[in-house]
Amino acid sequence: MAVGPLLSSGDPEPVEILNRSGPSPFLLIVDHAGKHVPARLNGLDLAPSEFDRHIACDIGARDLALSLSAVLDATLVMQRYSRLVIDCNRDPSRVDAIPALSDGTLISANARLSAEDRAHRIHAIHAPYHQAITGILDERTDRETVLVALHSFTPVLAGEHRPWHVGILHADGIPDYARRLLSVLRLNPDMIIGDNEPYHMDETDFTVPFHAWARNLPYAEIEIRQDLLTAERRDHIVAWMARALCDALNSGTTGQF
């Protein structure tokens, strides 16, 4: 572990890369996979229970990604630190890349950061994660690649229930693959599939625009409701999602789930 102003020798590396040589065209990425906090930040002065909430990480997304990577034989890149330390799906220049408030929780340790403190977080966590994705994409320029960003969302936010089971986010660049995936998933009558729900892909999103749009890569940003990613339900979701990803890639829709 490289020691610097933020990370110490006991802290994990910010990026986890699995199956780098996987033959699948899918490159799976998880911006909010982990909930680690650098030791020097003293847990951001939050109660430990806050890190079991959706504000700290995308609950269930890491296990989902590990299973999908295995089923698809796909390369997987994940970020290990909590989004409360720095959100790797935000432009690092944005104020909300290091949130001072998240779903009613005040993160006082983030409220009055100096420019130097922000730079340390960007340098130690945000930059290495995106450099890792860039490096893998550079290695794959001679092969088909579909960038798939995996996220999860809380069933209730600010008291509002969210009916969607899965959302597919897309905007500029080459959104054709995301739209085909949306169509395939909607063949399942038991699932409510959101088109740019529960979030729109907009200026707050960083990872997909930065990597996929810039390279004219097909992509999809997938949001799965967290209550579908429990240990009891995850295997079914993984099998369904893997089939849908492949059907959308092949432009074939069997309709069987």
TrEMBL record:
InterPro entries reported in the protein's UniProt record: N-FG_amidohydro, UCP029730
Keywords: Hydrolase
GO molecular function, one term: hydrolase activity
Protein name stated in the entry: Putative N-formylglutamate amidohydrolase
